[in-house]
Write a structure and sequence with these properties.
- The complex is a heterodimer of chains A (232) and B (468).
- Chain A is 37% helix and 27% strand.
- Chain A contains 8 helices and 10 strands.
- In chain A, the strands form 2 sheets. A 6-stranded mixed sheet of chain A has the order 6-7-8-3-9-10, with helices on both faces. In chain A, strands 2-1-4-5 form a 4-stranded antiparallel sheet.
- In chain A, helix 3 packs across helix 5 and helix 4 packs across helix 5.
- Chain B contains 17 helices and 3 strands.
- Chain B has one domain.
- Chain B is an all-alpha fold and 468 residues long.
- Chain B has a 3-stranded antiparallel sheet with strand order 1-2-3.
- Classes of the chains: A alpha/beta (232), B mainly alpha (468).
Amino acid sequence: MLKATNLTKYYGKHLALDALNLEVQAGEIFCLLGANGAGKSTTINLFLDFIKPSDGAAFIGGINVEKEPIKTKKLITYIPENLVLYGNLTGVENLQYFLSLAGKKLKSKSLEMFLEEAGLQSGAFYQRVKSYSKGMRQKVGIALALAKESKVLLLDEPTSGLDPKASNEFSELLIKLSELGVTTLMATHDLFRAKETGDRIGIMKSGQLIENMSTGEVGHTDLEKLYLDRMK
Amino acid sequence: MVWEIAIKEIKEITRTRQFAVASIVIMILMALAIGLSYNYYQQIQEQHEEARINERVIWEQQDEKNPHSAAHYGTYAFKPKYPLSLIDSGVEKFLGISVFLEAHNRNEADYAAAADQTGLSRFGSISPDFILLFLIPLFIILIGHNVMSKEYERGTFRLVKSQGVNMTYLVLGKWMGIYIPIFLLAGIVFSAFAICLNLVKDFGDVNWLAFGLLAILYLLYYAIFTSLTVVASVNIKNSGLTMVSLLAIWMISCLALPKAATTIIEESHPYPTQQAFSAAIAEDKAKGLNGHTPWSEASKKLEEETLEEHGVTSLEELPFNFDGYRMQKGEEHEAAIFFAHYQELKKIYENQKSGYNTLSIISPYLPVRFLSMSLANTDYESHWHFSDAAEKYRLEMQGILNGDFAEHAAYGDWSYKSDKSLWKKIPEFDYQPPGLTQILASNTQSLISLFAWSLITFLGVFLSARRI
């Protein structure tokens, strides 16, 4: 579902992503680990077409992101580290708005259903989002993915700053979506969460993918050791 | 999709505290301005009406006298106050409201409202046109300056962009999101005007077409400011800086430039002083025929020509009273001099207006200001139009009076007297202001500027969308 072929990005002379080759299958959760500046967010941004590759190409569902950005964006939902919504609109209104941008119209009942499915308390549906916690906002993001029937989730450190309970709930939602066939590419610093949630883990360093393994291959302790070794 | 984006913007804008506070302030100020304007209008109209009726009675009740004495006694032509002046009072208060009509003289309109005010009037007064021209554009800037920049600053833009939305639709939706509340606000304001105009119908017919055009004019003006606001917000990307930039544009185009323009234009196309103007007329008049000086060279020449034309040898043989005839000819000669000198003034005014039109390239305020005053019949051109009509009426009046003298009195018989029946023969001054076609034709340049501003700024919105 997600494919990077020789994907390269330079910022001036700085090589941010070095010929990345990656494939993520449908329904798979792929976690990208790495220090700050390793190239995780650059990879996500290239799949989002927020930046243009210096070389190579990114594909979503076999479609070249750079050539058909609008088409590929219809397939994805992006949740950044800090999902900012419109504070003066309610959860339902935010969801409705972002869906309309994606060219979809749903009635309030359906929107409520998706928010509920994403785990948002019903009492919050019609509250203005400025009173939401970060976890609640991330749930609106998941509801968006559900309502959009996204094939791909692109997550940039989505659990950063969430309390353990909210973080766990978020992971459960990702697994649920994965079971529905949604492909996830998640950049994260959270080794534990990556191991718990992901099907595969990739470790990035200096713009290169230096490890690509199945989460079943390593235990929590081994993963931490491997990560720290690779970061040296 | 554009509509959904607009709806979301409207919700966001109208749920902010600054929108609530600013719109309440504007509504209160507008209600106050309309109330004051309405009262002033009623009061002045009543005074005008009373003065007009009294003056007519005084004219008609004159005792028996020589018609030329009646011509010197004179009467007044009153400038009507137009219903639309309730919306835009223009330059009215600096111009006179009545012209004294007498023999041999074209008088300036007198009794300007500003002359009755104290020095404090220099600070200006609250009026509907002030709110329409200055405050509502400011309101647009206030509610719209961060329409796009807040998306960059808060980080919502990445989420918006990730939905695959067409940026032109996004920017158009935001444009509509700002414009629709302004459109509704203007709708409320113009509905209030319409109610007031309906209430004042006893004092003259409202030109509803002009009223509609006035509303469209202001809606276009607000569309220009909305476009400028969106363009700035998209391109500057920082709300504070966008606000400062838009305020600078507002200050330059609405405050600084019109004042600077007045100074520059008055320097480059100055009017003669009242003294110089009167002296020039007096000089020209002295060179020609004066009905009161039968011994002058011009009178002698007229005598000779008239005798020859009628094939007689003495003035007594003429089939009319030559004194009355000479008076009328003198009047016509003086009228031609007045006409020529006033044409010079008009030329200066045209040059000044052309200067303003040139400067309207850098200020959308100027064409709107001029068009608004014209549609309300409160600009200089409307005043000229009235002044010319009063002069035309004066000449007609002189023609009737001199004609009666020439027709009924014997040559040299200055004891001839007419009675009230003649005074009543003089029709009342029935002034019709310039029609809409004439108004629009004389403001072609302003219309072109306004449409150019609308088009270019709206094009700017599209181009900005492509730059995102």
